[in-house]
Specification:
Blueprint: H1 2-16, H2 27-35, H3 38-50, H4 63-72, H5 75-78, H6 80-93, H7 97-109, H8 119-141, H9 147-152, H10 154-172, H11 181-187, E1 204-210, E2 216-222
Antiparallel strand pairs: 1-2
Helix pairs in contact: 6-10, 7-8
């Protein structure tokens, strides 16, 4: 569990550096934003760190130990094809450090959960981050590049993947395994009303467009 503590500490440290994140007065909102994205953040960062399509959720390279972990966490193989597909898109975009950091920030902040206490403030920060990423990518790649929009369309898939992993851990890990309090607080989204599964029919529509003044508008709808 020390590795999960390390993942959690790094994720929280990164989140607190997102402009406006510490302005949220409701700590539960901060925790909810992190737990609804932490698994996807781990996957993206490990893939980028290892610079390989052969990802390893636990960052374990001892084959015997890795096999044992896969027995406890069978979801790893179940989600492999989805993760590989996302990695193909991410890798093809060749994001620099600033683009990747802004994208991770959006992954944490972007949410359609209107039940959060400070949803309007969160939505405002999401729009500012989206504009910052769009402007930076336009300046770097040219206004005709579609890379920004390709990247944005990955956000709903990553957030859904995060929910699927949480659901697998909660329902499929052997009952004799007792998770520490910090793990349940950060890694399991027990406040979710809907249980996400691989065969569910949830669809998230993520609209990104510019108005007549050139301002970026973002809107997401869950169906």
């Amino acid at each position: 569990m020390n590795q999960f503590k390390n993942y959690a500490n790094r994720s929280v440290k990164f989140a607190t550096r997102i402009p406006g994140f510490m302005n949220f007065h409701n700590v539960n909102d901060q925790i909810q934003l992190i737990k609804s994205s932490i698994h996807s953040i781990i996957l993206l960062c490990l893939q980028r760190l290892n610079n390989s399509f052969i990802w390893n959720y636990f960052n374990i390279f001892d084959q015997k130990l890795n096999k044992q972990f896969q027995e406890y966490f069978p979801f790893i193989e179940h989600i492999r094809s989805d993760v590989d597909q996302i990695q193909i898109y991410i890798s093809s975009l060749k994001l620099d450090e600033k683009e990747f950091s802004l994208f991770l920030s959006l992954l944490i902040i972007s949410t359609s959960n209107i039940c959060l206490n400070e949803f309007l403030l969160i939505d405002s920060i999401q729009t500012e981050l989206t504009c910052a990423l769009c402007d930076y990518m336009d300046n770097k790649r040219g206004c005709k590049s579609r890379d920004f929009y390709t990247l944005m369309l990955l956000l709903p898939s990553l957030r859904k993947l995060n929910a699927i992993i949480q659901d697998y851990i909660k329902n499929q890990v052997p009952k004799n395994i007792e998770f520490p309090a910090f793990f349940s607080r950060v890694y399991l989204n027990e406040q979710d009303i809907v249980s996400f599964r691989l065969d569910n029919k949830l669809k998230i529509l993520f609209f990104i467009f510019k108005n007549s003044d050139g301002a970026i508008l973002v809107h997401s709808i869950e169906q």
